[in-house]
Amino acid sequence: MSGELLINVTPSETRVALIENGVLQEVHVEREAKRGLVGNIYLGKVIRVLPGMQAAFVDINLDKAAFLHASDINSKLILNEEQSSEQVPDIRSLVHEGQYIVVQVVKDPLGTKGARLTTDITIAARYLVLMPNANHAGISQRIEDIEERKRLRDIVQPYCEDDHGFIVRTAAEGAGDEELRHDAEFLCRVWAKVLERKQRKQTKVAIYQDLSLAFRVIRDFVGVSLERIRVDSKLTFDQLGEFTQEFVPELTPVLEYYPGERPIFDLFDVENEIQRALHRKIELKSGGYLIIDQTEAMTTIDINTGAFVGHRNLEETIFNTNIEATQAIARQLRLRNLGGIIIVDFIDMTNEDHKHRVLHSLDSAMSKDKVKYSISGFSALGLVEMTRKRTRESLEHILCDECAVCNGRGHLKTVETVCFEILREIVRVNRAYDADKFIVYASPAVSESLVNDEYHNLAELEVFIGKQIKVQTESLYNQEQFDVVMM
């Protein structure tokens, strides 16, 4: 299926939208402030060796010197193999002051501590990880199927050379020959460029930087049929042009600079689609709708006929709504990037053929998704259980924060409930402490209810405890917030 990528770049944020057949299918977001140094490769200079700590400080042109422990040094790169052993060698036999060494950041600087480094370099792509100084193909332990492990090793092993090998990532399970070949070729080009920069003694900047979002997306869409890649930043467009020419030349012809006055994400209604993807309720064209609830443990999707009444009979109406819902579900899972356990509550069907066709339709719609998934049949309760691999944060977790008022519950206590809590709190405080009178500070809605709707209950409480209760409105309080103050 052909598609189009829209890349929106600002100094603080990069967003990428994948459009297929004129409809938004995926959104990727990266905030510049949250990008770290992990994965960057530097030609560093050892500035201090600390035998007591079995470590060295390495200058990689950051504010603070980076930290390299002896256990993070691949001794085979420094010593002869016969000299290396299972025990960590003395740091002084591995590095010395003034020495230049290729290192990779494994932990970002934090507080007063500098970055943590290693000499075991790895460069990751979508399906493979390149390992310099290895010559074999390793398979992720999380791929358990023996036949699949053999298949992947047979595909990748021919790309291994004397000076580099590959690890096959978990995401590669089920990947085809072409996809793995694209990854291997890309990584070999990147490593060749790293070696070239190393020879130039390039020490002021990283000789390899973990790719930013725009570049990662370009890398990951190698082999996908793209009609156009439109970029609204001239600087990023020029950088992507150099990147594609060097590493993925097949994508250079479809790269375009978008200078339009209309924001690029207004094309194909992307901005509005992103906003709709944050709502619980998703309307279907027929009049039915989905309710999507994302929790820590799982995501639940409920399908309802809504205003759709159909033209024949109830069973046919339910079936048609469920079929339409399968397409919307597959799209929403990609768009929102929902992973883990997903429970779908289709409208109950009694016809077994209808159930089979709904499952087939869901599987067919999900087959367009690059992320690994599995679908189980209908359970005894009429639910469909499925899983989708977690690849990155969901759209909601990237763009939204927990509600400060309801603490993520999605609900607020009613005004009446809060009023009764206040009355109980006054009784509790009166029993525990000796006070002459009480002042209640509450939100405008709760304050108004106390002096109007709950006036009789408040008056009875004053008689019961024999003390005056005064209500004070606090306009900045949320509906559940209140204070009972003794005077």
UniProtKB/TrEMBL annotation:
Keywords: Cytoplasm, Endonuclease, Hydrolase, Magnesium, Metal-binding, Nuclease, RNA-binding, rRNA processing, rRNA-binding, tRNA processing, tRNA-binding. CDD domains: S1_RNase_E (cd04453). Residues 39-120 form the S1 motif domain. It holds the Pfam family RNase_E_G. InterPro entries: NA-bd_OB-fold, RNA-bd_AU-1/RNase_E/G, RNase_E/G, RNase_E_G_thioredoxin-like, S1_domain. It comes from the Bacteria. Gene3D superfamilies: Nucleic acid-binding proteins (2.40.50.140), Ribonuclease E, catalytic domain (3.40.1260.20). Coiled coil: none annotated. SUPFAM superfamilies: Nucleic acid-binding proteins (SSF50249). Its cofactor is Mg(2+). PROSITE patterns: S1. One of its GO terms (cellular component) is cytoplasm. It is found in: Cytoplasm. GO terms for biological process: rRNA processing; tRNA processing. One of its GO terms (molecular function) is RNA nuclease activity. PANTHER family: RIBONUCLEASE (PTHR30001), RIBONUCLEASE G (PTHR30001:SF0). Belongs to the RNase E/G family. RNase G subfamily. This is Ribonuclease G.
